[in-house]
Design goal:
Low-confidence stretches: none
Distance between the termini: 42 Å
Structural class: mainly alpha
Mean pLDDT: 90
Shape: globular
Strand content: 5-15%
Radius of gyration: 19 Å
């Protein structure tokens, strides 16, 4: 299955432990997205809409090209998502002041309310899991997640974290 090597002195990963991690990730993602999916479905939206709303809310004034890089979807897919979000009153698009070709994205009050509702549900799930796992597990879990993403994604996360909120 995978290249299984000792890590440090005591951690030897067997195939069963790796499979267990994979299964837990699948189940965690399923449950993590379940409640938001229900809310989004009632509004005729899906996970691409959720991700767009989340990152626009996280970085107001984000450009369409920056959002494209974060979401890693085609221009055509993002165009469909943004058109629907703007048409339904969740997102505003403004022209850049320094570069008029730039399209900057902002959540409306309606979009902010939805983003807060969805993030609150998922935040509560994270808070509960962190409390149950203990303070030492938080940093370890984040290190594991960083280890699961490609280096280019880590660089993207780091640059996103460096932006003022």
């Amino acid at each position: 299955m995978a290249d299984i090597k000792p890590i440090g002195k005591a951690l030897f990963l067997r195939e069963e432990e790796l499979r267990r991690g994979i299964e837990l990730m699948f189940f965690a993602y399923r449950d993590f997205t379940d409640e938001p999916d229900s809310i989004l479905e009632a509004q005729n939206m899906g996970r691409a809409h959720h991700r767009a709303i989340y990152f626009i809310g996280r970085s107001p004034g984000i450009s369409v090209s920056e959002l494209l890089v974060i979401l890693n979807i085609t221009k055509q897919s993002l165009s469909r998502v943004l058109s629907a979000l703007m048409e339904d009153g969740f997102v505003l698009q403004e022209t850049g002041t320094k570069d008029r070709r730039q399209r900057l994205l902002y959540l409306t009050d309606k979009g902010t309310a939805l983003e807060h509702q969805l993030t609150s549900l998922q935040g509560k799930r994270f808070a509960r899991a962190y409390r149950e796992a203990g303070v030492d597990a938080v940093e370890g879990f984040q290190r594991v997640l960083r280890g699961l993403v490609d280096q280019s994604t880590r660089d993207q996360i780091d640059s996103f974290d460096d932006k003022p909120k």
